[in-house]
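Hello Y.,

Per our agreement to keep a running log of every chain we model this quarter, I'm adding this entry. I've kept the format consistent with earlier entries: sequence first, then predicted structure.
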Amino acid sequence: MKFLIDPRHHRSWVATNRDLSRKELSDLVLRNDVVVADLDDCILPSPAKRLAYERLKDPLSYVNPLFIYWALTSARALAKDGKLAESDCWQKYIELFLDTEEKRKKAKQKVEELLEDGKLEEYPGAAKFFNLALKDTESYLLTRNIPEIAGIFKEKYRFSYAFSQAWNKQRLSVLFVLDTRKKYLVVGDSVEDQKLVDQLKFYEGTMGIERFTSIYVAESPDRRHLNENFTINIGRDYRGLVEILRE
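Predicted structure for the entry above:
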């Protein structure tokens, strides 16, 4: 990876898997017809994880056999498989604890409260980045979260569409791969996003895709956290990338 903004000197860093100038990188990010982005741990710390954490803090949860079962099985899965287990753990959480309209409404209210109180904040520069990247595009927010929470962020960032409980993003690619759209950008941070990137790379040069660019939101600039399958890697701070886009 080539660092255009070096993490040794800046908290907000930018790297690419190609020999790109800052101007070339800017053109790849800003000149697109379709933008697809993940939500949890990509635009802000995961609202899904935060909901589960808030429930862990509630003493009443520990007299609920279903919650104890979910907590123990999730802990084992996460210890064994790490981030790969997150999707299954969250899917089970929805099945057990967000299975009614009233429960989902309360979950939405909780997330809104956390946002208002500043206890759940977007990554620095995220709003400015999406304001630039989504301009004049058709945009899709793909998230494993429930519709009520996906809707909050669809409106906040002005995505054209939001797809919630998106367990198979690769399969959803058929919804936005159309021959009238030429240039695509994907922003993600997970195994599911990697599968979507691989699918769209396969389509590049066919199916109407003239150019495909991807951004990986990495935990850190350490090599073990970088993903060279994505065109661009950034940390959980978009300000360096925004700086390049505004030059």
